[in-house]
From TrEMBL:
It comes from Novosphingobium piscinae. The keyword rRNA-binding does not apply. One of its GO terms (molecular function) is DNA binding. InterPro entries: Cro/C1-type_HTH (IPR001387), HTH_RamB (IPR026281), IrrE_HExxH (IPR010359), Lambda_DNA-bd_dom_sf (IPR010982), ScfR_C (IPR018653), TransReg_Diox_bact_type (IPR050807). One of its GO terms (cellular component) is cytosol. PROSITE patterns: HTH_CROC1. Keywords: DNA-binding, Transcription, Transcription regulation. Pfam families: HTH_31, Peptidase_M78, ScfRs. Residues 13-67 form the HTH cro/C1-type domain. This is DUF2083 domain-containing protein.
Amino acid sequence: MSQSRPLYLGPRLRRLRRELGLTQQGMAEDLAISASYIALLERNQRPVTAELLLRLAKSYQLEIADLASEDADDYARRIAEVMRDPLLEGIDLPALEIADLATSFPGVAEAILRLHGAYAREQQVLADRRLGAAASEPGTPDPVRAVQEFFSANRNHFPTLDVRAEELAAEIAEHGAAAEWLRKRKGVRVRFMPPEVMVESVRRYDRHNDQVLIDDSLDTSARKFQLALHIAWTTMRDEIVQLARAADLPDKSAVALARRNLAAYAAAALVMPYDRFIKAAESRGYDVAALGGVFGMSFEQVAHRLTTLARPGHEGVPFFMVRLDAAGNVSKLLDGAGFPYAPHGGSCPLWRVHDTFRTPGQIVTQWLELPDTRRFFTIARTVGGEPRHFGAPAAVRSVALVCAAEHAGRLAYARGADPATAEATPIGVNCRLCQRADCEARAVPPIGRELLADDQRRGIAPFMFADR
């Protein structure tokens, strides 16, 4: 006959108490027990009885099922993920021992998870330093990185801008076109001028004559976006400035950059209003080219907009987006999918985003698997390459979209594929952070591994390690 296991809720109880803003004495008074008993419960030195469980639920208006669900399963799952780190390869820790650790010693489990999390973060920082991520002295603010983190913290979604943009888009639709709306509502003319008149600008506002001048050598989607940018700046300036000021950015350069990026966000929301865009995206399987045709926008503009669909209750597929050149320099980075990426020092050479330069204009797809066994699906394509006029420079870049494997079935590019069995390419964040010792594509050894000095043997991989 099976015997029920004692219920230990130490970390959960401590977290609940802190969320409620209570001291141990305050919670003890609410539950009619002693403060010392609360301390024992939080240290998992006493199990929680059924009677106490009922008191907790009644005193703090909690569901018993939620309260009684142990952290052990979550700890066991996360520790199992940690143990899949290639750095720990060869350590035999069976699933039963992991479960025992998570159940009987949740404090130790939490300590392991915190240490591994700190290790992963420090590895990233160390890699950035070694690879010259900061060209200036340590401690000098990096405005680009700060703004990227600001957008990432907001999941690249700003509801106030989306709502205002939808209202404006409806107004503009009543007038037929943005230029007509500007003329009638703002008294501003739109004129398309040759490059020599624009004086190295693609858009310029002539305040003296109340006119917006746009380079006439831009293609249709670029003209449309530049006009939307002017409208965003002049009608949503207060919202944009308020968001940038509230971002707690390190310096004026970062604030200015944030304002520019928020204006671009607002412009995209204006030409691709949230409700219309997400409905079209779902119905067309997130086909970027098809969506470009619907809204008259470029591949990159649509890809960028796809990273912003995080409205609560009306979310789209969460996407990560990166734009880079043939040398690996990153010029745009938007993370809405939790995809680990090192913005400095190059990405994994096995990721096919780099192959797109050999097949310009063609979409490349790929399943990816990280060292921690998480799977992702990616599409990539080159953008640019067409000069605005003869003699003008033409920059070719690659744009990649990445989503978690469980969302791939919603994409036209991966329909019919099973994310669990699809053949995936093993990749790392970059060589400095990837602990896969047998990778033939490795350029440099990973941080924290001692190289094996063996003059008698040359392995398949470029480096061999002493702890293998």
